[in-house]
């Protein structure tokens, strides 16, 4: 089965549609959404409704910190810029959309796979997997061989051997990577809606559970249109600019 892994959609309709179209063309049979459907972008309602449709058809979905901020309480650590967008987003959503965000679990375990937004060791505290130390801590917190998480907006792959040897690398798009369950793996697909690795193309990944391979993908989209929508909504100009810069 080909499982598409999509995270940090951030209300970016153009990027999300491009990713979903690309994944379908690659033969994706199921989808896992790893949180942060809202925040930063100008199309939160459309993104939520789209994810709801996929969930109704068997997709996995977990909640992120921006989703929690909109549906419940804004984190004290959230930057003023993000806080402004959260408050604007609340005004754009109806009760059903807010309800969907409220009901999202922090994590989902299915077989040998763990799906979570931030990390496995403290999902509700939203700590980032910034490097190997945090990745190993997350892998030690689960017995699953495959952990999929978002939050970090840059694609990364970490692994931990049975003897405790850890490694990581930055993947090349479109190149299948063998990830057999002889090790534990932590996969960060990168952000679909707001990439931050200097490349504006949307990120996602496909896990082929039969072949036990992982392929990171990059998908160009019309980020200028997305930026224009952000400006038209009266959201911070910087949010439009960073889409074009990939930062």
Automatic annotation (TrEMBL):
Gene3D superfamilies on file: 3.60.21.10
Domain Calcineurin-like phosphoesterase, first and last residues per copy: 1-211
UniProt xrefs under InterPro entries: Ap4A_hydrolase, Calcineurin-like_PHP_lpxH, Metallo-depent_PP-like, Pesterase_MJ0912
Top-level division of the source organism's lineage: Bacteria
Family, similarity comment: Belongs to the metallophosphoesterase superfamily. YfcE family.
Protein name: Metallophosphoesterase family protein
Organism: Ideonella azotifigens
Organism lineage: Bacteria, Pseudomonadati, Pseudomonadota, Betaproteobacteria, Burkholderiales
């Amino acid at each position: 089965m080909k499982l598409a892994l999509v995270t940090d959609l951030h209300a970016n309709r153009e990027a999300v549609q491009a990713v979903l179209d690309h994944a379908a063309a690659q033969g994706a049979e199921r989808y896992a959404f790893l949180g942060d459907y809202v925040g930063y972008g100008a199309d939160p309602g459309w993104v939520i409704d789209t994810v709801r449709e996929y969930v109704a058809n068997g997709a996995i979905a977990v909640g992120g910190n921006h989703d929690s901020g909109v549906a419940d309480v804004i984190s004290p650590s959230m930057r003023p810029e993000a806080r402004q967008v959260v408050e604007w987003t609340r005004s754009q959503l109806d009760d059903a959309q807010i309800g969907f965000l409220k009901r999202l679990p922090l994590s989902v375990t299915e077989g040998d796979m763990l799906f979570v937004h931030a990390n496995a060791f403290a999902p509700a505290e939203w700590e980032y997997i910034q490097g190997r130390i945090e990745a190993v801590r997350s892998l030690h917190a689960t017995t699953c061989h495959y952990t999929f998480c978002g939050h970090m907006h840059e694609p990364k792959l970490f692994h931990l051997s049975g003897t405790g040897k850890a490694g990581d690398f930055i993947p090349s798009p479109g190149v299948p990577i063998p990830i057999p369950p002889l090790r534990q793996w932590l996969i960060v697909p990168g952000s679909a809606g707001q990439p931050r690795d200097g490349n504006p193309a949307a990120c996602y990944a496909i896990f082929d559970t039969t072949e036990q391979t992982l392929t990171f993908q990059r998908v160009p989209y019309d980020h200028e249109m997305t930026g224009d929508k952000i400006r038209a909504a009266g959201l911070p100009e910087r949010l439009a600019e960073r889409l074009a810069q990939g930062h």
